Amino acid sequence: MIWVTWRQHRATLLTAAFLLVAIAVPTLISGFAMHEQFRADGIAACVADPSARAGCAQLAGQFAAQYGEWENRMVWVAFLPALIGVFVGAPLLAREFEHGTWRFAFTQGVSRTRWLVTQLAVVGIGAAVLALACSLLFNWWRQPLDAMSSPMRTAAFTVSPALAALTLFALALGVFAGVLLRRTVIAMGLTLAVFLTVRITLEEKLRPHYLSPLVRTDAPGAPKASDELPPTDWILDEGLLSSAGHRLSDGEERAVLRQVYDDGTVREGGAALERYLAEHGLRHYTEYHPAGRYPAMLMIEFGLYLGLALVLFAAAAHLVRRRTS
User: Which helix (H) or strand (E) holds 235?
Assistant: First the structure.
């Protein structure tokens, strides 16, 4: 059965292997050069020392700009799970049902469970290995850039090891849609729509709340937390707190600014605003995640996508058994 499955999907699996090699060669060449420059220019030692970080900000900025173009080229990896879900997962079983070839498969002395498990295992392992290899490669490449900025709200999260779980989720979603609809093109469209909805919702709405963010308050005139926190922390929100402790809305903050700068002229820098805040009992607040939480948040996201993938695989297997019995 494994040999038959390999023959069915060898073109896809070989394409994935060639794609990985094509990605790895230029990424390794660029990565070794970047890591060496990061060390030799002293940026690595500078950004690791909080007291010296400000002094090398310009050099670090130039370094980030130099390799920014390479980083932009890696954006495509964000679409890898969607491509696998749409072009590999959705047709995997939908085509069998659409063309009626599943009847032939079940007359060859192979149980439905063995047929389904083999199909999903071969394709799933291939997709997960490709995604994990890309993830490890790009994570290694990004290490100097992640040392200078927060990894929790950048492309680093996109190419984290959670990419493998996200790819399995996309594959499982495509398989489930194919079994549910039994029409390849419609299943591909549904897979893409649901994948984007889940991914955008999770990243924009849920990810900031995997763990309860920390909140720091600062009195008017004192340095704000956003000015003192290391750039590797993820700042979610900042604004003003009333004397009663509730956060001012955007409209209330604009009203404060209008009262301070009612004639449109900025006086005394920010001193007038800070004096107004002190007179009215207002304080600054900053909501953030420390950089040390990145591994825990990564594991939470990995578990969410893997859990969804297992549920969808199980649902697809249940549908296959019902529709072929």
Answer: strand 234-241
Query: What is the pLDDT tens value at each position of the chain, 325 positions in all?
Result: 667 777 777 787 888 888 888 888 988 998 898 898 888 888 888 777 767 666 777 777 788 888 777 777 777 777 889 999 999 999 988 888 888 777 776 666 677 777 788 888 888 898 899 999 988 888 888 888 887 776 666 666 777 778 899 999 999 999 999 999 989 999 999 999 999 999 989 888 888 899 999 998 888 877 665 567 777 788 888 888 888 888 898 888 888 888 877 765 555 666 778 888 888 888 889 999 988 898 899 899 999 999 999 999 999 989 888 877 7
Taking the C-alpha atoms of residue 254 and residue 152, their distance in angstroms, rounded to an integer, is 29
Do residues 182 and 98 lie in contact, with contact meaning Cβ atoms separated by under 8 Å?
A: yes
Structure tokens at 246: 């509730």
d(CA 318, CA 316): 5
Residue 117's Cα: distance from chain center in Å? 29
The 3-class SS string of 1-55 reads: CHHHHHHHHHHHHHHHHHHHHHHHHHHHHHHHHHHHHHHHCCHHHHHHCCCCHHH
- Alpha carbons 177 and 312: distance in angstroms, whole number: 9
Phi-psi region of 109 (alpha: psi -120 to 50; beta: other; left: phi over 0): left
Residue 150: DSSP 8-state: -
pTM over 0.85, yes/no: no
Rounded (10°) angle between helices 90-99 and 294-323? 10
Cα–Cα dist 238/224, whole Å? 9
d(CA 264, CA 135): 50
